[in-house]
Design brief:
Blueprint lengths: L36 H9 L14 H29 L5 E5 L8 H10 L10 E5 L2 H7 L10 H28 L2 H40 L1
Antiparallel strand pairs: 1-2
Helix pairs in contact: 5-6
């Protein structure tokens, strides 16, 4: 499955003598002036600091690196799951299924997921290993891979992403107005959790559908 074109890394700016080079697109989530006074104190109490990774917004280079790292880890998990399956059933074959579907990782939704929420398609919460064929499904009692996107999941996820982007954009505008960036960060974390909950809900539906199919087959036999 392809998750769209990866961001192209922009050229880095050349720093003046005596200054460190800093990619201009790697902006700070909370600008330096926010760290003064009570707002800065509150952010530090929440575990943030002005110069660490948590305060640097993703850029094309960091997203590309994170995607490649996630892909490598997922492939290692897949290989281990495949070995376990074949250890139980000779010839068994598993395929990864991405719960938040491919269309949502492309275009505006994909930018929102990766650049704003810092969520990536190959991470554990978004990957479910399913049976690649009927024999594996029956022998291991694992749901069969749908061999593509599930249209109902695509529609539900796209509706969710549209609502989430609108809601978080409003939260960001409110933070700019009130300078309450801690409230925006809380809203962002809640949105991240809701995306993962949506994926978990799809996973439960897949497992339930397979169980219902198996029970119907057993009743008919």
């Amino acid at each position: 499955m392809s998750f769209g074109k990866r961001p192209v890394t922009p050229p880095l700016a050349t720093a003046p003598p005596g200054e460190a080079a800093n990619p201009p697109s790697r902006r700070k989530v909370f600008p330096d002036e926010i760290w003064q006074g009570q707002t800065g104190e509150l952010l530090r109490q929440l575990g943030f600091s002005p110069d660490d990774e948590s305060n640097l917004a993703p850029n094309a280079a960091s997203v590309n690196a994170r995607m490649e790292h996630g892909r490598a880890l997922m492939e290692a998990r897949h290989a281990q799951a495949q070995r376990n399956a074949q250890g139980a059933v000779t010839g068994a074959k598993l395929r990864p299924f991405y719960l938040i579907p491919d269309p949502c990782w492309n275009g505006a939704s994909g930018i929102f997921l990766k650049m704003t929420l810092e969520l990536y398609p190959y991470d554990d919460w978004n990957v479910m290993f399913l049976a690649a064929n009927e024999r594996t499904a029956r022998m291991l009692d694992i749901a069969l891979h749908p061999n593509g996107n599930v249209p109902a999941y695509v529609a539900a996820a796209e509706r969710f992403m549209a609502d989430a982007q609108w809601s978080l954009s409003n939260a960001h505008d409110e933070a700019l107005r009130t300078q309450d960036f801690a409230a925006y960060e809380i809203a962002r974390d809640e949105t991240r959790s809701r995306v993962k909950e949506l994926a978990a809900g799809f996973a439960r539906q897949i497992a339930d559908a397979w169980e219902n199919r198996r029970e119907r087959a057993e009743s008919a036999s």
